[in-house]
Automatic annotation (TrEMBL), chain B:
Gene3D superfamilies: Lipoprotein localisation LolA/LolB/LppX. The keyword Ion transport does not apply. This is Outer membrane lipoprotein carrier protein LolA. Monomer. Residues 1-22 form the signal peptide. SUPFAM superfamilies: Prokaryotic lipoproteins and lipoprotein localization factors. Keywords: Lipoprotein, Protein transport, Signal, Transport.
Amino acid sequence: MKNIYSINCDTLKKAAVLWGLIVLGLLVLAIYLLPKSKLNTSVLSLLPQTQNTAVPAELMTGFQERLDKQLVWLIKPKLSDDLEPVKWWYDNLTQQKFIEKVNGLMDQQFQQEWAKTAYQYRYQLIDTDTLTKIKNGTHLPWILSQLYSPFSGLTMNELNHDPLLITRSTQLNQLSHSGNLTVNNHWLTAKDEQNNTWYMIYAQLQGSSFNMQQSQQIIKQLDELTLLLKQQWPDTEIIKRGVLFYSDYASSQAKNDISTIGSLSILGIVILILVIFRSIRPILLTLLSISIGILCGIVAVVALFGEIHIITLVMSTSIIGIAIDYALHYLTERMLHGNQETAWQSLNNLLYTLIIALTTSLIAYVILLFTPFPGLKQLATFAIFGLMGAFFTVICWYPFLVNNLPVRLNIGERYLTGWLTLWQKNSMQIIMTLMMTTFIAIGLTQLKIDDDIGQLQTLPTDLYQQEQKIIAITKQSHDQKWFVVYGQTPEQTLQRLEAFIPILNQAKQDGLIGSYQTINLFSLQQQQQNIDTIKQYAPAIIDGLENMGLTPENSRLNLNELALMTPQQWLNSSISEGRNLLWLSLTDGQSATLIPISDIKNITKLSDLSSGISGVQLLDRRQEFNDMFMHYRIHLSELLVFAIIIICATFIYRNRNNGLFMAIKSTLPTLLSIGASLAILGITQQSLNLFSMLALILVIGIGIDYSLFLSNTKSQTTGALLAVSMAALTTLLSFGLLVLSHTNAIVGFGLVLTGGIFTAYLFAPICQPQNKQH
Amino acid sequence: MKNFLILCFILPSIFFVSNGQAITLDELQQKFSQYPVTRANFTQDRYIQGMNKPLHSTGRMIISQHHGLWWQQLTPFALTLKMNDQRMQQIIGQQPPQIIRADEQPQLFQFNTLLAAIFNADKITLEKNFQLNLSDSDNAQKWQLILIPKMAPLNKIFHKITLIGDQYLLQITIDDKQNDKTLIVFTDHQTLPLTENEKHLFD
């Protein structure tokens, strides 16, 4: 390698041209790929596919996408029966292109269809309570009670068509499970604690995924509609809920984060370079290598993942701080020694350490690549390719671009030398180490561990309050805990559901759960059984009515040639309204149904319910993710301890000739930087989580460079210190700015890196060779 | 089932009407709560179109301001109903009671809430929900109140509800939308306070 750089200029030119072609190719690829790629803003997609559930992933994705498409509004007109604003909102939503379907209006036609279907399938879909009553002989007295009741509204017509009153019975029993929602004036309504009436309108978005621009457009349109509504009916209240609102908020926050952090770190870097180099060209050069780095990173991520996650982008801004190091090292070398050596010689002097620096950083990121988190894989991919892009730009192009760069000697020489001399004193080393150890000790005592994935998401107070209010009014559970029942075919799924319901009923009776909700559809097998049961018991009931002289003249039982209801028919009918979202069938027949559970008393016992039953599983995604976070946090900390041991052993081995004390001392920067990282989390009341662990990996990967550069006997120490100082400063700047992020997890990530890298930089001179100065 | 939800709130109000002077709605309402307890026997005839004879039933009822309504049909089959503003319990024959709670099953309690609002609240609410027609008969002791529901869901089921009373409520006639009709006649009114035994009936 040395030979190439000192002698063979031709090879270098070829390399430069080749790199130019590659960059051009990447540019074309970027122009081709970017418009097609999607910006992902969902927090859940940062997390691994739940591998520990047996539920087919396609089904889970299907449910997730459906959930993402739901929007809910509650409207409270000034007067409870003023339907104008509700109608207005409904009509306007219906007209929007981005809305697939609006629900909440149960008009005359809907109710008629509903009644017709309920009647047509009354035997097939008879509710379990009614069926039990028919079997144990208590259905007849109930029919009598309806007949004798002056307020039942029962007519001869109904009795003629449905002598067993099964439609009526099923309907009444279903009503008693309907929660807090009622149909009022044809609209779905709920009452809050102050007895105000809220009208509920919910809608599904058209399409399945939205890029940032689309969702922004939708939100803008909805905001305008809300404003118009408020203008026309100033006293009408409207509250909303939906994943879209959150993801739009998250992406606009992230956009803010990116522009703030990105522009501030670029600004800081520009100022720093101007101050040190006193020239514009180094700025352009560093910006060039950063831009190419970012280009490489983005193309790699988009090409490999087909999308880029918003959190990846935010965290990727921090790559700038590392990518710039290669440029800085080279430019510093040129600035200090531009008069004595050629551009090639400078590169030659640095190449070895640059490669080491790149390698240590890459190794740290490669470790991230092996975590199962898609978000981190993206970040690592971005970093690996981004850093390589910046690195190759420096080694291939810089030698051609740095001609006549102004040379400045002895910049801050006095301070740098003073700093190094200071660190050579034992007293300085001991005092600093003691102070840092104290700081670490204080910080560690306050360190808390928290694996909650909620930290990944900033909940905007306003949206969160609206959501809480909607939950309170509709009394819908927000636990997001449900059983999922699945099977190869719809029929198998339904049969599994039917087998599981008795277990749920038992759990309810035992007080394990408050309530549960299932779809109102049976398997074909169960439907046929229902018909058979009714055929068996109907004659006795009819006899009973006859004995009391109550048989209508034209009574029609119609128990023969009944068509069974398939899931598809159910979905298309009005009786699935409000429950159709609980059912999902894929084209290959695989099907699943959700059973939302509310008021869970004991989650561990609950998951035992489905253990051993094939095709049934409790889903508690949040808990699963928290567990996974914890698992990987522990996993990574073991990995980290292992890495630290290796690193310390290497340092001790390298310094074995300088005596044991020196050898042990050389491990201090690494150990202290880890300690300081953790301590700063404790002191700032941030909790230790998976993200802190990931940041620690980077602290080691990057922090080691400083010790390496300063202990490198081949380079001049003050020059190395200047380059290291600038590198550390830019890295600190870009990681430090992550603290400004609105996402808690990113703040913690930034804090760990800032604390760790600062400490690594601070203690790096402890490793300088004792005898070498100036 | 819904029938009793309504009765619960009409009865407490109506039974306590005492002396019939030339009466106004205000006065009628004012007198609603005069007796804390009223007992009566009832006979009910339900005329359903297409049935050749009315469905005849009889029983006893107690209405208490504190405890709510206890309604027991004795013939032709036993049916007991207990209710207050929080819950309703229906027992058919020897079967386990069927309980509906207002906070858990608001949809089934809709009648209750509406009628409670009407009869516990002022004249304005009453007039908002029903078209009212209050009149004295020739005999100044008797009065008649006709309620014609204006809104869903009441107007879907009832054509009108007619209450006739003197010192007590004597008769309720319910005209259904489908021209079916129910006549309930109350006799043997008593207004003594509840005995301990009677209180347990409401449990």
